[in-house]
Every structure is written in C-alpha cells, then in structure tokens.
Design a protein that fits this description.
The chain is mainly alpha-helical and about 180 residues long. It has helices at about 1-15, 20-30, 35-50, 70-80, 90-95, 105-130, 140-175, and strands at about 15, 55-60, 65-70. Helix 2 crosses helix 3 (about 35-50).
Length: about 180
C-alpha cells in the first residue's frame, strides 16, 4: 500500500513517467522504500484506474508521464493525516536472530559485511546533502525541504545501524554474544 503513496507523493511534486519515478526513488526514497520498474508501472495502472493519477504528456517513443489528480491529492492528504502503525518485517534482524548457527568468525564476518553496507549508504546519503542544490522556492523548494528531512532520517538510521553492527561484531569476537 505504501508504494501507492510514495508514487502519489512524488507526482505531487512533479509529473513523471514510470521510468522517471523509479529514477527519482533511487535518488531520494531508496533508503526507506525500494520499488522495481514492474511494481511502479503496475501501481501506476491501479492509480489511474482509481482516478488518482491522470495522463500528463506523451513523449518520445510513446513515453507516458502522469500527474496526480485532485482525488489523488485528497487520498494522499488523508493518508498523511492517518497515524502510521509500523509492523516491522526486517530480514536483516531475522538473520541476526539465527546467527548463533554460524561459528563466531562467520557471524562476525556477516556483521562486518553489514557494517560495510551501512558505511557505504551513509557516505552516499551524506554526499547527497552536500552536493544537491536546493531549489529557489515554491513547491519544489518546500518538497526539497521535506526530502531533506527524510534524508536526514536515513542518515540517522544508517549511523545507528553502523554503530550497532560494529558493536555486535565486537561482542561476537569477544565472546559476549
């Protein structure tokens, strides 16, 4: 269900094709929500059938862009007003739960690999903050400000998970598990 609102939120900033949405997600939302091309196109079709998006422009080679409709904006605003209830389903933590099945060296190596991933994403997100110019004003400026808030949450998450993975690997190596 959240892919629907990720798409609507992105289209509220600027009309886009499915391809553009995937690229935009890769640049902005991939730290919290990854979506395949197929999933985005499927959801765009559902959103259009529900009247939440409408065709905007047809470009070269029949490339169709979409814009959020008034009904889509209403649905997005209603969703934003509804408290989010988080039901975590985290494959990473599920794996950690069963790391006891590996010897300490393999478990610590797994945690080291996680730390490397977190370190890389943290560097990527921090470079976006440094390198991405802010729009001057208007809707794009406001959207950018909230994009930066979401990005700062991603940075905080990666920092926390990096510290956790490094500490967990240290504990396993020290036999403190």
């Amino acid at each position: 269900m959240s892919l629907r609102f990720a798409i609507l939120g992105s289209l509220a900033v600027q009309p886009a094709s499915g391809y553009d949405l995937v690229k935009r997600f890769d640049k902005t939302l991939n730290f919290v929500w990854w979506a395949s091309h197929g999933a985005v196109y499927t959801e765009l079709g559902k959103l259009q059938a529900d009247g939440f998006v409408e065709p905007h422009e047809t470009g070269p080679r029949g490339r169709q862009s979409f814009a959020i409709s008034d009904a889509g904006q209403d649905a997005l605003r209603e969703w934003l007003r509804t408290p989010a209830v988080r039901h975590a389903r985290d494959d990473l933590i599920l794996r950690v739960f069963s790391l006891w099945l590996l010897d300490d060296d393999a478990a610590a190596a797994y945690l080291d690999d996680l730390a490397t991933e977190f370190r890389g994403r943290l560097a990527e997100y921090e470079s976006r903050v440094r390198d991405e110019p802010a729009p001057d004003s208007g809707t794009d400026g406001r959207a950018h400000a909230f994009d930066q808030l979401a990005l700062s949450a991603g940075i905080a998450h990666e920092r926390t998970m990096l510290a956790w993975a490094e500490d967990a690997a240290r504990q396993v190596r020290a036999g403190e598990d």
